Amino acid sequence: MTSELSLPQVLLQRIEHEYEEQPTLRLTPRQAQRLWDLDGPTCGVVLATLVDAGVLQRTRDGQFARRSNSQSLRMKT
Questions:
Q1: Residue 76 burial by CB count (10 A; 0-12/13-18/19+): exposed, middle or buried?
Q2: Candidates 1.20.120.790, 1.10.10.10, 3.30.980.10, 1.50.10.10; correct CATH number of 9-69?
Q3: pLDDT tens-digit readout, 6-57
Q4: Which pLDDT score, from 0 to 100, does residue 58 have?
Q5: Residue 71 pLDDT
Q6: pLDDT (0 to 100) of residue 1
């Protein structure tokens, strides 16, 4: 997913950190949107970015969960 929306690295790292702190965290896009107080388009781009980076994976039921072998975005900065 590509977008003109520029995401602050601190936002991506904050969300990644929440998934690290709670390894069993599984959220639908709507739940993620509410949890992090994001609008729909921003939340979609954040989740897609983290999936593309190998941090998250989308489950069969549409939730986003941490990849067991995730690569931290902090290592890529």
A1: exposed
A2: 1.10.10.10
A3: 788 999 999 999 999 999 999 999 999 999 999 999 999 999 999 999 999 9
A4: 96
A5: 59
A6: 42
Whole-angstrom Cα distance, residue 16 to residue 66? 8
Sorted by sequence, the CB contacts under 8 Å of residue 17 that are 6+ apart come out as none
Task: Kindly provide the b/e burial profile for residues 11-34, where b requires at least 16 CB atoms within 10 angstroms of the residue's own CB.
Answer: ebeebbeebeeeeebebebeebbe
DSSP state of 59: -
| Greatest extent of the chain over all pairs of C-alpha atoms, in Å | 31
Q: Which helix (H) or strand (E) holds 26?
A: strand 26-27
